[in-house]
UniProtKB/TrEMBL annotation:
Compositional bias per record (Acidic residues), positions renumbered to this chain: 89-107
Region annotated Disordered, chain positions: 56-76, 88-135
Protein name as annotated: Uncharacterized protein
Length: 234
């Protein structure tokens, strides 16, 4: 029986216990509780036996690896000494032949460092100008993927749960740290909400109100135009 089967069996026993209590059968409910306790006790004993066997196996493997590693270290040290002696002799011969090669190599290394630093700065600048987010390597071992959104990568690729994937940036210390200019600006009292931009309304122009008075005669379709502003001015 695996873990999921055990959980299903315990859930069935719990439902049977609740049904027995609703019926008023206390003996059946007590039997269900005893079976639940026996299942949990059996599971803990099985897990303890399993982990004890794995620990013994791992300790034996570690001892055998240590013994093999000591033998390999002895042979590797001898090989390293031989390689070092041959490498030193070859370097001495090269210096005697070409004394200016060391200076050329130093200048070449400096140029490579400058070009590498300039390239990385240029890439960051282009990413910022284009508005693209920088890709970061996945912190999990044996995963060399570079992703933009780490929680989504952990959920979709590594099958992490949502609550663990959302806190991965903080737990792996990958969240961006914001620096303040001084301790006073970093205090909580100085943090204020950004003011909302005020809507600037255009100045209202006075609208001329017009009144049209129709003639009362049934056959007359003429209308007389009267303006309030004109009456005030007159």
């Amino acid at each position: 029986m695996d873990y999921h089967g055990l959980q299903a069996r315990l859930a069935d026993l719990k439902t049977a216990e609740m049904a027995a209590l609703r019926r008023g059968d206390t003996k059946a409910a007590e039997r269900c509780r005893e079976r639940q306790f026996a299942l949990r006790h059996w599971w803990t004993n099985e897990q303890g036996r399993h982990y004890r066997n794995t620990e013994n196996r791992l300790s034996k493997d570690a001892e055998s690896n240590e013994s093999q590693g000591q033998e390999c270290i002895g042979t590797a040290e001898e090989e390293d000494i031989d390689l070092f002696s041959t490498y030193a002799e070859s370097e001495e011969n090269q210096e005697e032949e070409d004394p200016g090669t060391a200076e050329e190599e130093d200048t070449r290394e400096e140029k490579d460092k400058e070009s590498y630093s300039d390239g990385s700065e240029e890439e960051e600048a282009t990413c910022k100008k284009a508005g693209k987010r920088e890709k970061k390597p996945c912190p999990l071992p044996h995963c060399n993927a570079k992703v933009v959104h780490l929680p989504k990568h952990l959920r979709n690729v590594h099958d992490w749960k949502k609550e663990y994937a959302r806190t991965a940036l903080s737990r792996f210390k990958l969240r961006k740290e914001y620096e303040f200019t001084s301790q006073e600006t970093a205090s909580a009292g100085n943090r204020r909400a950004k003011p909302k931009p005020k809507k600037v309304l255009a100045a209202r122009t006075p609208i001329e109100r017009e009144n049209y008075v129709l003639c009362l005669a049934a056959w007359c379709l003429q209308s007389d135009y009267h303006s309030i502003y004109r009456e005030d001015t007159n």
